[in-house]
Amino acid sequence: MKYLRLKKKKDFQKILKAGKRIHCGTLTLVYYPSECTKVAVCVGKKYGKSVRRNRIKRLLREAFRSHAENLPIACSVLLIPRIAENYSFSDFSRDIGAAIGRMPHA
RNA sequence: CGAGCGGGCUGCGCGGUCGCGGCGCACCAUGCGUGCGAUGAGGAAAGUCCGGGCAUCGCAGGGCAGGACGCCUGAUAACGUCAGGUGAAGGCGACUUUAAGGAAAGUGCAACAGAAAUAGACCGCCCGCAGCUUCCGUUUGAAUCGGUUGAACGUUCCCGCGUCCGCUCCGGAAAAUUCCGGGGAGGGGGAACUGCCUGCGAGCAAGGAUGGAAAGGCGAGGUAAGAGCUCACCGACGGGACGGUAACGCCCCGUGCCAUGUAAACCCCGUCCGAUGCAAGUUUGGGCUCCGUUUCACAUAGGGUUGCCCGCCCGAAGCGGAGCCGUGAAUAACGCUGGAGCCUAUCGGUGACGGUAGGCGUAGAUAAAUGACCGCGCUCGACAGAACCCGGCUUACAGGCCCGCUCGGAUC
RNA sequence: GCAGAAGUACCCAAGAGGCUCAAGGGGCUCCCCUGCUAAGGGAGUAGUGCUGGAUAACGGCAGCACGAGUUCGAAUCUCGUCUUCUGCG
Description:
With about 110 residues, this protein is α/β, with parallel strands linked by helices. The chain has 3 helices and 5 strands; from the N terminus they run E-H-E-E-E-H-E-H. It has a 5-stranded mixed β-sheet, with helices on both faces. The protein binds 2 RNA strands through strand 1 and helix 2.
């Protein structure tokens, strides 16, 4: 299952304005239907220093990668984690799987 | 063995599966493609505290303002950095720390305390002159108390001296808190002296509980009292010789000593600095040419020019139309990584560093690349993620390793 | 990424080398007023940590984001660190 990275600021604003949100444990998933599957991770400065932010982004990307095949429709996806003391791959993976499971089937 | 000082290196490793960034090669369905290959964060990448490259503006002309630095010599592209040295402070020592120019260029500040704070004479010490050396309650020549006073405590001599009073000396009696006899000074007036006190004048800066700091320290001589007034030692200042490129060191001579601290207060002296920063900036976004029009200005003016002035330059800005080439928009490409580069050897230098020779090709993203899982090992893994690039500084950091040195103890 | 500003008590804050010193409001506590409350009036609290003292009265030391330095003496001057905020396409 191939997917693309989402980069442009316009796309972010569009998804955040019109997309649907699924809150699930340690993160929030925002999605909006599009031609092909795109993904982006939102980690701002409030999450910590650069080492900590990079760690969160890597964990989220890896977790999403393992669940991307289960997406019911092609759409653009934003992943927004909650601020926490510690972040673990297993929690992210579990919650992304649950969030995708709650998406409506086309 | 114990305690300690200085310097350097390192910053989990190995294997497998899946995945990420740009790069190279190959393929065809030419795509937001697929496959293969090699490669891909640090000693601090951090803080953005200095310096430089680079870029744009101004046109590199001057001055003012402003800022930075500040022992000496060197290194360097440059530095506020580094190396070597000097002075000072600390440590038994190895060694460490050091914003370390100027306080007789000027200005400011120094609370409280203290006699006095950058200067003086309050107390004090000493000399001379002058005054006073006494009054009242109170009466009793003594004694006591109180008041007033600047002060209430004298000594000697002369004149005068009846009673009484206490003091004192001698002799006698008795037997004791006495008695008798004799003598002396003591109330008043005058003079002198001395001490206290007061006033005036002169000398001194030794002493005075303070303070961060009191016009060198300490000892001796000296003096009316004192004083670098004189002397020794130490310190300071000035001059000279020697050593050193220099900071400075050391020795000799001289001067009794022109005088607190603060310049991380203003300031003075010396050296240096144009401003802004890759979100700089370049190309495409539209540009060029021509025409019309509006506004400001039309010359001792106006506009532009870095904080200001001089100086310098010149018409400037906006809108509309026509012709030609072009149309992805906080985007795309460039800047963007080969550079004062890294490694090794060797030479010069105490060293920072420099020269020569050989080798290497070593991230380049832009919502921004290193992760997940499994297995094994161990000391169980700290601080932490490039964003134009270098040289430094500062700060953070689990541990591990190496080298040199000092002090103490023990043993040989 | 680059450039700049500010940190003082629970909150807002003045103080810009020395004396009352951490002013002054708000807040908080107590009293009055009221049937009760709000508003109003009056008085007080001064903070915090350590420490002396008797669990007191009354003191001492530290303390102005944190750590060093200059100075006889720093909230104030200098340097470093941390935190917060702002500007630049």
